[in-house]
Amino acid sequence: MKQVARSAHVDTFTRENLPPRAQWPEFMFTLPELAYPPALNCAAELLDRHVEAGAGDKRCIVTDAETWTYNELLTKSNQVAQALIHEMGLVPGNRVLLRGPNNPWLVASWFGVVKAGGVVVTTMPLLRTRELETMIEIAAVTMAICDHRFIEDLDAAAPDGFQIFAYGGADQDDLTKVAASKGSKFKNVSTSAEDVCMLAFTSGTTGKPKATMHFHRDVLAIADTFSRHILQPVPKDLFAASPPLAFTFGLGQSLVFPLRAGAAVYLLEQPSPQRLLEAVERHGITVLATAPTAYRAMVPNLAGAELSSLRACVSAGETLPQATWEAVFDACGMRVIDGIGSTEMLHIFISAAGDEIRPGSTGRAVSGYVAEVQDEDGRPVPDGELGRLAVKGPTGCRYLRGDRQTTYVQNGWNVTGDVYVRDGDGYFRYQARADDMIISAGYNIAGPEVEEALLRHPAVAEAAVVGAPDEERGMIVKAVVVLQPGAELGPEPAKTLQDFVKTQIAPYKYPRVIDFANALPRTATGKLQRFRLRER
């Protein structure tokens, strides 16, 4: 698809920092539903369209405390857009950082930014000051909307002139109060289908996150491929998911997919496996999405649970072990839908549902995508042989400023960094990650980032981090630490360092196992031999 609509962005930062078009992957729009118009605002397609069609009184967002209709979400989103423009001076193309747990006002803020032609940069509330500073710098963010309970770290990370709209508090300048003073109508900015509407950050393998750039058309494409053809949602569905909206897996399951279908979503700020299971029983959830570790944790309680409403369970974030799939199936008869996606591709591109599922296999290329297994030179390998997973479709990798663009995109293919085997029926079976990324309980964790956090402690001389196999979480973060001569860490040295790391980076990244050594294994030239650490 060639660009056929002029950009609406006044702030041209994202357009100027797209990688050269020659370095983009080949995009494919092979399905009729992927033929998007040149002028497209995805917020209008996901939200306004349903109200215009007469479904405004239908429920849209459900929590334990309240329910918002499509009319109410549209009104609040329109008011947020006006508040951003009138109070903060937002112009199309400005990046707006969002920080908060999954709740209705976070969704309204997402829509408000996109309706106003802004670029959403959604972050997890677990992130600490240093991590927020990095994202703000990379994306050149100048304003944010933040849940009032999570403002401290953002305040500390904010550079001079940075504007923050808090929501959910009692102050008179709280976004909820300012928005209420605005009118209910708003004329959406007529963005191009190829205007960037969101930046999603990867963890990366070097410790420094990379920003992936996604167009308005990309947001709709993930709904019109994976959701439409695998989940097949209907307006009466009620979705629920554990990942935060900052994860593209969570964005799809908790915002894009239900609203594209005119369905509803149940939002839970602290979605533990037990609370998700209770929500299925209490609210009649029909489509559930979470990580494999959560499904494993639910198994003991599945047999006695009331799950008659549940028609689809989605697993992503890490590979779904066959043993976990079988345990869920044996407990309740549910056939969990596995899938692999990536932040670069925005959502899932290989999956299978219903009777098409083969336990232990991820599935086949989702309608709209093609996939193959390649050797190091980009040539397809015979079925049954190991190789690198390569994918094409309506979405694809565009790194902000082209950071490592030619590593991920090669010969028009998105090369995901996963090692796979394909069988003669076109099913793909996951083997391993090709890099040093640690995937633990659905979270991507870069070892070097954890190493850096450990090294900030004055007692630590050297640190190396690897992934260690774990039955419960798939992998865990394991650190090997060399202490400074004479350093003392008290009676529980490992816990002391673990607690310290939790103050430096998001707590879920902390090393669950710490070994102490006199030296780290290195080559003659001083390079760390990580494979020796994995052998320990």
Describe the SSE topology:
Blueprint: H1 13-16, H2 42-52, E1 59-62, E2 67-69, H3 70-88, E3 95-99, H4 104-115, E4 119-123, H5 129-139, E5 143-147, H6 151-157, E6 163-167, H7 175-180, E7 196-201, E8 211-215, H8 216-231, E9 238-241, H9 248-260, E10 264-266, H10 273-283, E11 287-290, H11 292-302, E12 312-315, H12 322-332, E13 337-341, E14 348-351, E15 364-365, E16 370-374, E17 387-392, H13 405-408, E18 409-410, E19 413-422, E20 428-433, E21 438-440, E22 443-445, H14 447-455, E23 460-470, E24 474-483, H15 493-504, E25 513-516, H16 530-535
Structural class category: alpha/beta
The CATH C-level name of one domain is Alpha Beta
Helix content: 25-40%
Span from first to last CA? 50 Å
Number of helical segments?
16
* pLDDT < 50 runs, ≥5 residues: none
CATH superfamily of one domain: ANL, C-terminal domain
CATH topology of one domain: GMP Synthetase, Chain A, domain 3
Report on the biggest sheet.
9 strands, mixed
Percent of residues in β-strands: 15-25%
The name of the CATH architecture of one domain is 2-Layer Sandwich
Average pLDDT value? 93
**How many beta-strand segments?**
25
Q: Biggest sheet: strands side by side, in what order?
A: 2-1-10-9-11-12-13-14-15
Q: Tell me the Rg in angstroms.
A: 23 Å
Overall outline: globular
